[in-house]
């Protein structure tokens, strides 16, 4: 899978096993070949919800979406399995670009492949999903440029804060598996400060340790006088490196450790031969009403390309059941 177009770390064997162990999903892997060579793969996650069943292909399938015949073959197989299993829905969330740049701006560029795939999905009866699960939009940095070019493209304020971190004694070191409790403590502090959900330590330990051991994750810690004040955790696979997790202490934030960490992460990803650094997450609505606006303001200083994907799409073999599910299940979950 690593060499397939649109390969994603959330389609790996390791991610399927992690979701099996922590969330009750059962992974099912499909491979498609031509002439004995793999041309497409899909890791499906299956889950029972009472008498109901759903299937989710997280950031997949992986394939060349410009190949219309191949896309049709893969979609047909997924639809066949959905009908045979009597599912409520089968959700795919391919890493296919719809457009780049801010909507309705001079920099906006539509992607013909993304447009063709959305048309194909609609024609086959798929519908744009009400539940998107993963981020639709992100910022990506082209690592094929030199470090000097990448740094020069950043905003002046971001470059200044990177320099401030160095002048104020921020040191960056790689983390090991022994650092996992420390990484979690900082992440918990960040969740409490920024008011987002934090799961128990064992959940993150399973993910971070498994992916580190598999060579699919790398963590960096920012320290001042040997005291950890921030970290990033990167997942990497295929041609991409993703900034999946970040955390910082309540103290020493004036030293700008998060800026130093991002620059160190970009440098590390480039040194490992990755083509793209994905900052993993940008707003759906590009104004201050979006919950990601503050984080977006931080990320955009690194001057990545705003990349908008086609998002998640649902295939519903039983439309009435699909409608009832979306009408009543969210309400039941809210009561529970």
Rounded to an integer in angstroms, the radius of gyration calculated over CA atoms is: 21 Å
Shape: globular
How many strand segments?
16
Q: Give the CATH level 1 class of the largest domain.
A: Alpha Beta
The number of domains: 2
The secondary-structure class comes to alpha+beta
Q: How much of the sequence is in beta strands?
A: 25-35%
Mean pLDDT: 94
**Uncertain residue ranges:** 331-336
CATH architecture name of the largest domain: 3-Layer(aba) Sandwich
Q: Quick one: biggest sheet? A: 9 strands, mixed
Distance between the termini: 39 Å
Name of the CATH homologous superfamily of the largest domain: Gcn5-related N-acetyltransferase (GNAT)
Question: What letter string, H or E per element, gives the SSE order?
Answer: HEEEEHEEEHEEHHEHHEEEHEHEEH
Strand order of the largest sheet: 7-6-15-9-14-13-12-11-10
- Share of helical residues: 25-40%
Work out the helix count. 10
Find the CATH topology of the largest domain.
Aminopeptidase
